[in-house]
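Record pair follows.
FIRST:
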Amino acid sequence: MMKTIMAAVLVFTFGLCGCAGMSQTQQTTLSGGAMGAAGGAIIGAIAGNAGLGAAIGGAAGATGGFLYGKSKESEAAAYQRGYQQGRQGN
């Protein structure tokens, strides 16, 4: 039991440290893929094929995470352009 808990803590810690140098798009893509795979595995297990559900869910989640991240990066860039234009106008 103790080994299982230690392994889970290590995996969680390494997972958090691994995201430190990632851009927002990379983080949302990875998070979306992980959440999609987990959700797909659960639905797939109910339907009878957890592996296929995880693969489909992971792909859909990663795609959604990527698109969301790109949207947020574009929004931040537009904000910065507007901010700089406003500062130049003063």
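SECOND:
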Amino acid sequence: MAIPLYGQNKDGGLINEAAKDLEQIYRFATPPNVSDYEHAVAQLVDGTAGDTTLHQYADGFECTLYPIVAQDNDAPAMATTGADYAYEQDDDDGIEWRMSDATCKGREGIDRFTVGKQAFSAELYFSIADVSGTDDCAFGFAKVEAHQAAIDNRDESAVLNVISGDIKIETILNGGSTSVTDTTDNWADTESHRLKVLVAKDGAVTYKIDGQAPSTTASFSFDQGEVVTPCFYLLQAAHLSGAVIHRKLSIKSDKGSLEE
């Protein structure tokens, strides 16, 4: 029987740290450090439309956030249940965050995934105060590319999108039109749910809502070799969403980190 080195406790034949890479869990438990991301000379974070900021949490979660229009908010509001990413409450205000930005190398198997290298998934557990206030409230995977002010302008994407309480599957392939399928599942005011998007090694996408397959689903596959990242997109409606609190984010993959 092999004796592991000090600090290398085994878990199913794998060193614990390697096994840990197969699943990353982030809980939005403490306020993030928010800093200017895109300027060579750092600027104050002031919510300017299109000025991307970097959000860094104590548990290791990082994302770049893109204000769709000018925001009064410089950071998510914190609550005892998580981080409120509703940002400014005005019609057509909104934000997009992505774990991996197109301007950097990224971490293969951690914050970005190349279709064909392994299977992977992402699940976001969050609440919406007023679902009639969401023109879009989408979570899933998008191609690693420049942030887009309009979700329909993405080149490739597969998300579950909460629109006025209706949970819909929305997909885009190679810059084409958005394909929309109503799952017929619904989200009521103040409820919390888990939206999960799973991508097989061959690129085929499936979905889960609170651990169950949607009542109605749709087939879609990402292109082989496409590089995608977990993402969240919110666009306020005239009625306004109220708090949209991120509670837990889970990222899983077959092989974990494939960083070189």
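COMMENT: The domain at 23-253 is CATH 2.60.120.200 (Jelly Rolls).
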